[in-house]
């Protein structure tokens, strides 16, 4: 087993274990912390694949931005020791059905896709091309995705405040 294979298995195991812990934890602060480990491991996979820009975005935006917003929202709006209620059996059954259906869909898509390895010459890309792509709203521009990310951050903050807000039952 090579080092890359070992690191892939390690990151994959961390992602699977902490994903399960995230969705099964009844303490919201622990769930947010487990989510942080999942996002760090995902960025580790991106680094392993040499997608350095995507890995850096994963670390700064998701692990650094959204999870920190969620944790601050939890700390500002509720008690740290609050526990989430156990969902009813019907919701758990529907969630299990949705998870199995999603897993089957992902597995079938991966098995039916033909992956072709392509070579890329990194010497042909100039920094000016990258800068123009970042500011462009055209086909290969990044202006729209950055705007979508800002809406995603706002939605994450609002969602975490709603989740962490105390109920007055």
Description:
By secondary structure, this protein is an all-alpha fold. The chain folds into 2 domains: 3-84 and 123-164, Four Helix Bundle (Hemerythrin (Met), subunit A); 88-115. Helices cover 73% and strands 0% of the residues. The mean pLDDT is 82.
SSE diagram, text form:
Layout lengths: L2 H22 L3 H21 L3 H26 L11 H24 L14 H9 L7 H22 L5
Helix pairs in contact: 1-2, 2-3, 3-6
Please tally the helical runs, counting DSSP H or I stretches of 4 or more residues: 6
**Main sheet makeup:** none
Number of strands: 0
Shape: globular
- Unreliable residue stretches: none
What class, by secondary structure content?
Answer: mainly alpha
* CATH fold-level topology of the largest domain: Four Helix Bundle (Hemerythrin (Met), subunit A)
Features:
Four Helix Bundle (Hemerythrin (Met), subunit A); about 170 residues; mainly alpha; 2 domains; 6 helices
Structure, briefly:
Helices cover 73% and strands 0% of the residues. It has helices at 3-24, 28-48, 52-77, 89-112, 127-135, 143-164.
């Amino acid at each position: 087993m090579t080092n890359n294979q070992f690191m892939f298995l390690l990151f994959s195991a961390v992602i699977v274990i902490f994903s399960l812990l995230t969705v099964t934890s009844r303490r919201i602060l622990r769930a947010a912390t487990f989510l942080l480990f999942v996002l760090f491991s995902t960025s580790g996979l991106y680094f392993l694949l040499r997608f350095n820009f995507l890995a850096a975005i994963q670390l700064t935006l998701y692990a650094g931005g959204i999870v920190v917003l969620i944790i601050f929202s939890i700390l500002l709006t509720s008690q740290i020791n609050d526990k989430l209620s156990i969902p009813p059996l019907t919701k758990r059954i529907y969630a299990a059905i949705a998870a199995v259906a999603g897993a089957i869909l992902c597995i079938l898509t991966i098995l039916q896709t033909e992956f072709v390895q392509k070579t890329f010459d990194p010497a042909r890309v100039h920094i000016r091309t990258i800068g123009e792509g970042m500011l462009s709203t055209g086909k290969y521009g990044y202006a729209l995705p950055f705007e979508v990310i800002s809406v995603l951050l706002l939605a994450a903050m609002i969602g975490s405040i709603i989740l962490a807000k105390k109920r007055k039952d």
